[in-house]
Amino acid sequence: MTTPSPQLCTLGAADMGILRKDDASMKDWVYEVLEEAEKRRYVPYQHRIIQEFRDLIEQEDDVLEGFTQMFDELSDPGPVDDYEKMLAVFDVIIGQAPIFRNLSQVAFPICAVLAGPMGTRAGFRMFSDARVNAVIKKMLDTWFQFLSSPRSRYVLSDGPTGWFGPAAVAAMPNFAQTFVCDPMAPYYGFKSWEDFFIRRFRPGIRPIDSPTDDTIINSACEATPFRIEYSVSETHRFLLKGYPYSILRMLNNDELAPHFVGGTVYQGFLHQFFYHRWHSPVNGRVVKTVIVPGAYYLYIPCSEGEEIPPDGVPVLDDRAITGSQDFLAQVATRCLIFIEADNPAIGLMCFMGIGMEEVSTCQPTVVPGQRVRKGDEIGMFHFGGSTHCLVFRKDTPVSFFCGSSLGQRIPVNAAIGRVG
């Protein structure tokens, strides 16, 4: 098989709906939340996990140093300029549902607060620390419980910042005709923010291309192609910008990972407004599912061509967070679903659902031994934008149709490639 050069989509922040740390809309929103947080700074936190977070920072000398330095390293930290304000803002955020505010990334509110600190040397150290990740997981779990409750439905309104208001309707046209809902019912019939987020397409909205043609590979997600790379290495040192994929790291050194050394990776990004369920790209049988715990806010915005030093400390840069999707595929929380395709030319393949920042709940809905057909649901993300990969063996002669479509949304179940 001819080995094409890697293809990398270099979309700008605005193209992918991603908020950069200098985004004016983000700063305005953070100021608003900080004003609410300031009212609570001298009373007990409303969420116990925030006090636990503060205890970790203040009782561990190296963590206190790290969370102090990450703000000190910023030339313009913005409204949240120390860890006390950060925690006060978090206490507000995890008791609220995301509002709709233009097309900005305010639907990623924690990431909006951390956009600057997570790109510093100290931020890299802290967000790669197991103790910090453990308390962040508890914080996100607390928030997820709220988002899964009826109390979170208040944002499913037709108000200015509601998800059925004028701005949201313009961003998500024909919503009622596209998704399963009841426009005449309160909150369109959704039971919670989470129920709204994992909404389903109405029957027939996303037809399955070539359902019986086993040479065709279909899109597993409603996603924008980000990168296609052939001859992926077994292991590789991280480089800063256009990170090389390291297949063993991506697949968490699973016993099946060696099958994919030298293989092919197709990666695509799911915008926060996209459909967030996963569908089988092939006909076959589920071999194995694996949940890989990972880092939540680990971000390497470094200078092009520079290699990360042995101590793992990067150089601060202003690269958009979604530009690091290839890096996140190797360090973030992710779900691996190994499928043995009916077509022996494909054989064993792997779907990877990869959580980004707030989106760190990746749920498979299939079990080992289960038969899947193209278009069958295999899992879902919970909350926010995400990324995913399809991974193929070295001997799988796969080629993709979307080289000219990098940067454009490809519907779930659409044909994206061919084998042979």
Structural description of this entry:
It comes from Steccherinum ochraceum. This is L-tryptophan decarboxylase PsiD-like domain-containing protein. One of its GO terms (molecular function) is phosphatidylserine decarboxylase activity. With 420 residues, the protein is an alpha+beta fold. It folds into two domains: 219 residues, no CATH class; 131 residues, no CATH class. The chain is built from twelve helices and 16 strands. The strands form four sheets. Strands 1-3-5-14-10-9-7-12 form an eight-stranded antiparallel sheet, covered by helices on one side. Strands 2-16-15 form a three-stranded antiparallel sheet, with no helix packed on it. It has a three-stranded antiparallel sheet with strand order 6-13-11, with no helix packed on it. 47% of the residues are buried.
Please specify the SSE layout and strand pairing.
Elements lengths: L6 E2 L15 H15 L9 H12 L1 H12 L10 H11 L15 H6 L6 H7 L2 H18 L18 H6 L3 H4 L14 H5 L18 E3 L5 E6 L9 E2 L6 H4 L13 E7 L6 E3 L4 E9 L13 E2 L17 H7 L2 E8 L6 E8 L5 E4 L6 E2 L4 E6 L3 E7 L5 E3 L14 E5 L1
Antiparallel strand pairs: 1-3, 2-16, 3-5, 4-8, 5-14, 6-13, 7-9, 7-12, 9-10, 10-14, 11-13, 15-16
Helix pairs in contact: 1-4, 2-3, 2-4, 2-7, 3-6
